[in-house]
Design a protein that fits this description.
This protein is mainly α and about 400 residues long. The protein has four domains: about 70 residues; about 90 residues, Helix Hairpins; about 60 residues; about 100 residues, Tetratricopeptide repeat domain (Serine Threonine Protein Phosphatase 5, Tetratricopeptide repeat), CATH 1.25.40.10. The chain has 20 helices and three strands. About 65% of the residues lie in helices and about 5% in strands. The longest helix has about 35 residues.
């Protein structure tokens, strides 16, 4: 790979190939979405700069991503930047901030296009739409932009915008719902009205400026993240906040939300890794690979008692004599938190036994039986010690 400083100046884009990716590589691939500067990608990832660049290089080698030429279209983003700046300024107004940001964006976009749109485009239907399709679209769009939806709110400048948009919607539908007026309007537009024998053409999907779409998508992801955070689904929330920041890096609130979520994401990911390690242990028994998985969890969340307990047990099961004292310290911390768990006392007793502290071991096995009188292994170890 090229020197890290060179890589930071590059842009990367995803490909549709994800076979053979590790979980972390797939996470990185999902952050790409569309082409992005590497320097903008780094804040979206929970790893160090070097680790992220290595994983990115792996994606490219697996044909899941590719380097692309540096973007030269910064000026083409002017319209989206203008909308974003307007929305950011409005957010400083407590009354306007009560209006959904996505909705405000849709109003600004609609208003900016009104003079360029014909009646069909205003109603967001195709020129050969049936009467039923015309009415359905009219009801949907008029409901969205009806000023009466916000009678209890201070709309500020949005009152005039909504009035203008709604009047245009009403005028467009008034013309197109009347067959005679519609035919005359079609002739003015030089559009052939369909005959009953002619199948209706498929609608052309309205295409917004991609950068304006990103502003709306960013707000959508941000709100999804807030809902996921409320449900304590921290990994999903962090991913949503990261996507919001990727779509619209100019909004600090997205980056701040993601940064605040990172520690919680690490803890949740650690718990998932710990569960996977336990499943492997049940199927395959103790191994250094499983111990490494648990060590990784403790690195991200040192206070996780379940990981302290499991790692101590693995060290003892694997007979790593040089780390028995380490196991004892971890088990002491685990027992302090898991005050009713007999396994914490039992494994601590094993650690004392391995260290030759038979009195302390006996005490822990007795404690285990207090917590669980039917713990056969603790009873067996205690009998052996008492027979000495």
């Amino acid at each position: 790979m090229s020197h890290p400083s060179d890589a930071l100046q590059k842009r990367v884009a995803p490909k549709d190939i994800t076979e053979g990716l590790t979980a972390e590589e797939y996470f990185l691939w999902s952050r790409l979405q569309s082409e992005i500067d590497v320097k903008d990608l780094l804040p979206l990832c929970p790893w160090s700069e070097d680790e992220t660049l290595k994983k990115l290089e792996s994606l490219i080698q697996k044909n899941s991503a590719q380097w692309v030429a540096a973007s030269s279209k910064k000026n083409s983003f002017k319209s989206s930047a203008d909308f974003s700046n307007v929305l950011d300024e409005e957010d400083k107004n407590p009354e306007l901030k009560k209006l959904d940001r996505e909705f405000r964006l849709s109003v600004l976009v609609k208003e900016s296009e009104l003079e360029k749109l014909n009646h069909y485009e205003i109603l967001e239907v195709y020129a050969r739409a049936t009467e039923k399709e015309l009415k359905e679209s009219y009801l949907k769009i008029s409901k969205k932009f009806h000023p009466d939806r916000f009678f209890s709110k201070n709309l500020g400048a949005y009152k005039k915008k909504l009035d203008l948009i709604f009047s245009k919607i009403q005028k467009a539908y008034g013309v197109l719902k009347n067959p005679i007026e519609r035919k005359a309007y079609d002739q003015r537009l030089s559009i052939q009205s369909p005959s009953p024998e002619t199948p209706a053409a498929k609608p052309k999907k309205k295409i917004l400026d991609p950068e304006i779409q990103k502003i709306g998508k960013a707000e959508h992801y941000y709100k999804a993240g807030l809902a996921q955070q409320k449900e304590r689904n921290y990994l999903a929330a962090g991913n949503s906040f990261a996507l919001a920041f990727q779509m619209n890096p100019s909004r600090d609130i997205y980056k701040k939300a993601y940064e605040q979520m990172k520690p919680l994401m690490a803890k949740e990911k650690g718990k998932q890794t710990l569960e996977n390690a336990k499943i492997k242990f049940e199927n395959l028994g103790a191994s250094k690979e499983i111990l490494s998985m648990v060590e990784e969890v403790l690195h991200s969340d040192p206070g996780l008692a379940d990981a302290q307990l499991f790692s101590g047990k693995l060290i003892l099961d694997l007979g790593i004599t040089e780390r028995v004292r380490d196991a004892k310290e971890r088990l002491l911390r685990a027992k302090a938190v898991l005050s009713k768990d007999p396994e914490a006392s039992f494994q601590l007793g094993r650690a004392y036994l391995a260290l030759g502290d038979f009195k302390a071991a006996e005490k822990e096995f007795e404690e285990t039986l207090k917590r669980n009188p039917s713990h056969l292994l603790a009873k067996k170890q205690l009998d052996k010690l008492q027979d000495r």
